Amino acid sequence: MGKAEVECCDVTCVHDDMIQKVKGLLPEEGLLHELADFYKVFGDATRVKILCVLLQSEMCVCDLAELLGMTQSAISHQLRVLKQMKLVKNRREGKTVYYSLADGHIQNIISQGMEHIQE
Fold first, then answer.
1. pLDDT tens column, 34-71
2. Which domains does the chain carry?
3. Nearest 5°: phi and psi at 18?
4. How large is the greatest C-alpha to C-alpha distance in the chain, in angstroms?
5. What is the pTM of this model?
6. pLDDT over 80 (residue 1)
7. Is 78:46 a contact under the CB 8 Å cutoff?
8. How far are the Cα atoms of 8, 14, 20 from residue 11, in angstroms, in the given order?
9. Strands of 88-93's sheet, edge to edge?
């Protein structure tokens, strides 16, 4: 990817009506911080790999660790982060705990992100 040049206005002209309109439509500061934190979770390649795996099939920690060539401890740590952000959920079956994507929104986010970077 090459550097994108940023174009600036040749004159300073503040459009107060547009600023007031948009200011009134912005989410409150707390929500913006939550949204930023949500997207930070996707800033880690290991977490993205886990989400891509779970997009295909639910899996237990043992299977995730084997598939991704990582320790169960490392996988558990990342799953904890993903669960705190409500991106994954788990269910217990006997002694095995299976993880899956929390809902269809997560699938859409991953799919749309992939489409965007492959354009």
1. 999 999 999 999 999 999 999 999 999 999 999 999 99
2. 27-118 (1.10.10.10)
3. -70, -40
4. 68
5. 0.82
6. no
7. yes
8. 9, 10, 20
9. 59-60, 96-101, 88-93
